[in-house]
Design a protein that fits this description.
Length: 360
């Protein structure tokens, strides 16, 4: 597969430019690598290739994408279907790309997640647990739940802000130095009709699993969604997907904001980092060079640290999240799973999660 170069000057002068490209003028989802800058090929690697590896009759590939070393698999949350069945966890084997499904106790409507070192865990080893954002339902609180996927056990970590019910906790990251869990709270359980009407502002939180301290670190969002640390831990990126509520409204935010992280615990200097031209930026990750990757309305968009769009992993439909693996990127677009292979970029958490790519 070769890269498809986007002529920015032609695009600037002709709003219908993408209809002239065979890669983007498609009638059904297909994957291609769109280069908006010569840097994109350097970031992805000259030998990168892309293909579809699964196309299922249900939306198995939605959020999370957490690696478990023992079974060499990615754990991906499926999309909500109905209250008759909790959201499934889709297990994708990285040995042969076979797919199975499971559910964990006390985890009702799982969404975003992260690998997790509980307090006191040996951080010279890969993370032993996973933390999921449980959006909750009409009977269960929205909460953070730690899971040991190998023992099939769960521990509820946090169910409220000082007794106040969260709306639908959405995505979470563990700070690699402090061990704190940073997470977002949005309204998507309410919009999908499995949560009560929200009673909390839309905010970003920091939670200390070892002490129980929970703190609001940012507000002023319409719908805070994905979040990610820069590799130097000086910046937090937060996506606002407020363009999508009950329906999509293109006048709402589809924006990534950047904040300075102060003393590993608070935020300052909020600023606009990037805006997605298609759909909205949902799941977000950084690579080790500080480039920012986010799933959006037509695939995965990649910006450099200055917020310049370098390129897209284009699939022609909404991608809600993706996951790095050594030499690979897995793209989730609900019923379909895609992989980009021979990738040069290294995800920020690949060293921690896989125990490889740790060379400085």
């Amino acid at each position: 597969m070769s890269f498809v170069n986007v002529d920015l000057l032609a695009l600037a002068r002709d709003a219908t430019y993408f209809t002239t490209l065979s890669a983007t003028n498609i009638t059904s989802p297909a994957i291609s690598l769109l280069s908006y800058s010569p840097e994109f090929q350097t970031v992805l690697g000259e030998n990168a290739t892309a293909r579809k590896i699964a196309d299922l009759p249900w939306e198995a590939f939605h959020e999370a994408g957490i690696y478990n070393k023992k079974d060499n698999s990615l754990y991906v949350t499926s999309n909500y279907q109905s209250l008759d069945d909790n959201i499934n966890i889709t297990i994708v084997s990285l040995d042969d790309y076979s797919i199975t499904s499971t559910q964990f106790p006390d985890l009702w409507e799982a969404n975003g997640g992260t690998s997790y070192y509980p307090p006191g865990a040996d951080q010279t080893q890969t993370p032993p647990q996973q933390v999921y954002c449980d959006e909750g339902d009409f009977e269960h609180y929205s909460q953070l739940v730690a899971v040991d996927p190998n023992a099939n056990t769960s521990t509820v970590l946090l169910t409220s802000f000082m007794g106040r019910n969260f709306s639908s906790v959405n995505d979470v990251r563990q700070h690699p130095v402090t061990g704190d869990l940073w997470f977002t709270d949005a309204d998507y359980g309410y919009f999908q009709d499995f949560r009560i009407q929200p009673s909390q502002p839309k905010q970003v939180y920091r939670f200390e699993p070892s002490t129980g301290v929970v703190q609001v670190v940012a507000d002023g969002f319409v719908e805070p969604n994905g979040l990610e640390f820069s590799p130097d831990l000086k910046t937090l990126y937060v996506t606002d997907t407020g363009a999508q509520k009950f329906t999509f409204n293109g006048t709402g935010p589809a924006t990534i904001y950047a904040f300075d992280i102060q003393c590993d615990r608070t935020l300052a200097n909020r600023r606009t980092f990037a805006f997605s031209d298609t759909g909205f930026p949902d799941g977000i990750h950084c690579d080790t060079e500080g480039n920012v990757w986010a799933s959006a309305g037509d695939g995965v968009h990649i910006w450099n640290p200055e917020g310049i769009l370098l390129g897209k992993i284009f699939v022609g439909e909404t991608s809600n999240n993706f996951a790095f693996a050594p030499g690979k990127v897995f793209v989730f677009s609900n019923s379909r799973l895609w992989v980009v292979e021979n990738v040069k970029a290294v995800g920020r958490e690949v060293c921690k999660d896989f125990g490889v790519g740790c060379e400085k």
